[in-house]
Design a protein that fits this description.
- This protein is globular.
- The N and C termini lie far apart (39 Å).
- The protein has a four-stranded mixed β-sheet.
- A hairpin with a 7-residue loop joins strand 3 and strand 4.
- It is mainly alpha-helical and 292 residues long.
């Protein structure tokens, strides 16, 4: 079947049926099984944000990851995915809403994983393939598309102030309160909206004047600025607080997370065969989760 036809017709139909089934035949699914040990190892190895959390916070993060994967399908398109890819998608969803205990992505039913960049016609070959991710609208409502290449890069390089998956989930959060306009009304109290808009205008002007270290793509519009600034906030919070204190303060208020207090400078944890097993069993890794 033609790939574009599949994306535009078959995939949305699947999403509609999945959403209908969930709405009419079951409630929001919550985790009932223990968090899989192999998933915990992936988080330890791949997600610096997770490693910066306290033990209690890690358990809550694990719960949210598991909950997300129970309620949102991750579907590969012309590529293969594994447990690590799924965990990275879920971690990208959880990081920006970690400050909100009851947040649920109730409008998102499926994340499509493309192998690389694509164009506006969802084509993976040819020219104008510049898109790394998008939140669907119209017939694609309820779907997010992410480039597998960009998804992995976002966690492999956590110092470049870029994470495509987090960027797209911030767009989805923005969209929850209405149009994607850079004003996250579901998170932002009304009295802060005007100062936020004024700050965006100021920061976008700095980008235009080449007086800013914020990704120039943030100068596209207010929605893109919000997502770009959020990437910066979650990847390099201490640098953001130093160079853009007012922006940091606003984002801290929006996401209810003091990111600058987290230790994100450590390398992702390495697990040797004789290391204590990260599942807290009290055994060495080789005697527990490291068993083949």
């Amino acid at each position: 079947m033609n790939f574009i036809l599949f994306v535009l017709i078959i995939a949305p139909v699947g999403v509609i049926l999945f959403g209908w089934f969930r709405k009419n035949n079951s409630k929001w699914v919550v985790p009932k099984e223990p968090f899989p040990k192999e998933w915990k190892l992936i988080l330890i190895k791949e997600v610096t944000f997770y490693n910066s959390l306290s033990n209690e916070e890690k358990k809550r993060f694990e719960y949210k990851v598991q909950e997300f994967l129970l309620n949102c399908r991750i579907t590969p398109i012309k590529t293969n995915i594994d447990a690590t890819d799924k965990i990275l998608v879920a971690a990208s969803a959880v990081i920006p809403i970690f400050g909100f205990n009851d947040w649920k992505y109730i409008s998102l039913y499926e994340v499509l994983i493309y192998p690389s960049m694509f164009n506006e016609n969802f084509e993976l070959e040819g020219s104008d393939r510049r898109i790394l991710g998008m939140v669907g609208n119209g017939p694609m409502e309820g779907i997010m598309i992410l480039s597998k290449q960009a998804l992995k890069h976002g966690f492999q390089n956590e110092s470049d102030k870029k994470n495509t998956a987090i960027h797209e989930f911030v767009h989805l959060i923005d969209k929850t309160g209405g149009p994607i306009d850079g004003i996250p009304s579901v998170l932002m109290e009304k009295q802060y909206a005007i100062p936020w808009i004024d700050l965006i205008n100021k920061k976008v002007e700095e980008i235009y004047n080449k007086e800013s270290d914020i990704n120039p793509y943030g100068g596209t519009n207010s929605a893109e600025f919000f997502s770009v600034a959020s990437e910066y906030f979650f990847e390099r919070p201490k640098l953001l607080e130093r160079k853009h204190p007012e922006l940091y303060k606003h984002l801290e208020s929006v996401f209810k997370q003091d990111m600058s207090s987290r230790n994100l400078t450590k390398n992702k944890a390495t697990i040797g065969r004789n290391s204590p097993c990260p599942c807290n069993s009290g055994l060495k890794f080789k005697k527990c989760c490291g068993l083949k």
